[in-house]
Amino acid sequence: MRAQVDSQRSSTYTATQALSRLKEGNExxxxxxxxxxxxxxxxxxxxxxxxxxxxxxxxxxxxxxxxELIFDAGFGELFVIRVAGNVLGDAIFGTLQYAGxxxxxxxxxxxxxxxxxxxxxxxxxxxxxxxxxxxxxVLLEEILPALEGIDTEQPADAVLHAAVEANVRRTVREIxxxxxxxxxxxxxxxxxxxxxxxxxxxxxRFLD
Length: 208
Description:
Helix content is 44%, strand content 13%. By secondary structure, it is an alpha/beta fold. The chain has one domain: Beta-carbonic Anhydrase, Chain A (3-Layer(aba) Sandwich). The protein is globular and about 55 Å long. The model is unreliable at 1-9 (pLDDT under 50).
């Protein structure tokens, strides 16, 4: 996500246009009017030469939250990074950097979802001292800082709802602290937003 332009082209979409495309696609998905077109072999052959996604999505690995479907996006339109709990880490940061430097996507979205199992496990670890296998605990430790300040006196569902949103917001803040984002975001050629996918309705709620 560095500011300088390399040998590849800049995106044909602005960040605002890219965000509008995601919102319009999600509206089609919610209405049951998603396109889901069959991709012709000629189109696949053309896309094999280069990719030009209009947005990068950092989302959860949950099988119920496939970004291409919920945004009604076609082949090659989204650069998708998926990891349980939509957390960060060295490999994730490297992938985001690739998306910014080489793909020049104008829009980056951190996409969480309600009832997230990873976030729920982190809440159980923090509030009830629950334990997990060692590698899962490493992942949950990326979520725990986001839970500071959450009102734990609320009903369990409300606590999890708040935790999911807090986790997305923290990931957004962490990305904004990278040198690349500090250059590109103020310059107006990159937008970073957080969002929550609602499992029952299929709607994506974009955070302020």
